[in-house]
Amino acid sequence: MSEAGERKSVLKVLGGEAVWPPPIWLMRQAGRHLPEYRETRAKAGSFLDLCYDPALAAEVTLQPIRRFGYDAAILFSDILVVPQALGQSLWFVEGEGPRLDPVADRAALDALRPDLSRLDPIYETIRRVRPELPPQTTFLGFCGAPWTVATYMVAGRGTRDQGPARSAAAGDPAFFQAVIDRIVEASIHYLVAQFRAGVDAVQIFDSWAGALQGEDFRRWCVEPVERIVAGIRREIPDAPVIAFPRGVAAPELALAAALPVQAFGIGQGADLAAARDVLGERVALQGNLDPDALIAGGETLDRAIDAVLAAARGRPHIFNLGHGILPETPIPHVERMLARVRAG
Ligand code: CP3
């Protein structure tokens, strides 16, 4: 029996063990690069219909596990279901991205009518996926970090530089803190419920953490995530958490190091060895193959994989991309990557 068959390799790594070859999963592994996803998605109608349909969401969560045997499955949902449960209207414009009615001031925030039971179908997805997973496969839940979620809530859409949220944080910090506080409370409730429904660990996506520096980063990125982790651990002691403050420079990574999490996701372009120097040897790192290298394939891909493996060897590491897999990624390139990582 292989080592991986004994216990979940991702959980071992989150416990501080250096597992070799490193376990692997990919952000956005359930998504448009898979023909079977596109087929299920067409059946569901809209992307949000898919997120809230437990049978179909469970199916797309399992698709990449069946095809590639990744070491972790990630719940199929979206970070923006939390603002929706907080009462904000949400829709996706095909080919463009998410839209929300902006919460630009205190009056708009006070007008929201939260209803966290809107998240119930997502727990049902987890209960359906759980028994279908191979025993060695770790099941990951997730939410967005309050800063990243707030950038969408305040602007009403994705923005290039997160300007509207940065302006709100600087111009009306009491209002912005109130937005963050609502997201923190809802996220604790949401992640605790995900654990109770059957996930093994959770990842907190702070995709736009790179937009803040220094004290702003500490206040809006580190402190809210710290509160979420503390809130989860009050209910589920030792709950494994992966923080993903994407795109931060060394001084901010040093501030993030205060988070009591088991792993840090590292975005593409960041140097894994430098991140190790900042974060120390015991915490697990996750990442950070460039999604463009996975599109390029061939020797470009092999060299990029080898660079990640070289930095990961002998340390607790989870192989992943530095951001989500892109829809145009050829499936043979994913297969080539898996073979190379699994060969160590
Ligand atoms: O990783 C996974 O496989 C789990 C599912 C997952 C999705 N979104 C599915 C999705 C996760 C973890 C997310 C997180 C998410 N969503 C983030 C943080 C991580 C990141 O990518 O930076 C953010 C910022 C969002 C918000 C969001 N959702 C945007 C901006 C978009 C539109 C862009 C796009 O790719 O279309 C989405 C849509 C989305 N979320 C899709 C998927 C599979 C594509 C929807 C489709 O099928 O058309």
Q: What would a concise description of this structure say?
A:
This protein has helices at residues 3-6, 9-14, 35-44, 47-51, 54-68, 81-85, 106-111, 120-129, 146-155, 163-171, 173-197, 214-235, 250-256, 272-279, 291-296, 298-312, 331-342; strands spanning 72-74, 90-93, 97-100, 138-144, 201-206, 241-245, 263-265, 284-289, 317-321. With 344 residues, it is an alpha/beta fold.
Q: Your description of this structure?
A:
The chain is an alpha/beta fold and 344 residues long. The chain has a single domain, classed as TIM Barrel, CATH 3.20.20. Helix content is 51%, strand content 12%. The strands form 2 sheets. It has a 7-stranded parallel β-sheet. A two-stranded antiparallel sheet has the order 2-3. The protein is globular and about 55 Å long. The chain starts with a helix and ends with a helix. The structure holds coproporphyrinogen III. Coproporphyrinogen III binds next to strand 3 and strand 4. Catalyzes the decarboxylation of four acetate groups of uroporphyrinogen-III to yield coproporphyrinogen-III. It comes from Salinarimonas soli. It catalyses: uroporphyrinogen III + 4 H(+) = coproporphyrinogen III + 4 CO2. InterPro entries: UROD/MetE-like_sf (IPR038071), Uroporphyrinogen_deCO2ase_HemE (IPR006361), Uroporphyrinogen_deCOase (IPR000257). This is Uroporphyrinogen decarboxylase.
